[in-house]
């Protein structure tokens, strides 16, 4: 998901001009590590741009932080709000003090143009939102992903929105309720922007 987001902002040429020499996916890192193909790149600094999911945190811990000198140092950039428990997990795993920066850059969505955005959903997740017979677990994951994406957008805009939705849409109701719970209950302080009015 983060590769899609970054590619809307920077081209491959622009990335190379910023002295980025290697781009790899965590899944590919896992595959190469399983094949015992873990080349040391201790002369390079790694910037890991990831969504703050449990899977990504686990992969960061296992294939980077638990191994000495895969890279010289690590900057961890999360595309959405990262939970305290996840940060503690990463800190505990950083046995060699390799992490030099942890940053939340709210970009857990894809900008289509200056007025529109989309949340990156897997095809089956997107289809489940309009299918009344879809698996409940799949729908729940899709709704959670929509909530995360919209919340990230609001954090990047520094706005806490007034939430309105179509009452007849069960999906819209779930997304709206999830957003309300996140923004007004669970993470109220995170969305408290005193200098700005609510978005409409």
TrEMBL record:
SUPFAM superfamilies: Sec1/munc18-like (SM) proteins (SSF56815). Pfam families: Sec1. InterPro entries: Sec-1-like_dom1, Sec1-like, Sec1-like_dom2, Sec1-like_sf. One of its GO terms (biological process) is vesicle-mediated transport. Belongs to the STXBP/unc-18/SEC1 family. This is Uncharacterized protein. It comes from Pycnococcus provasolii.
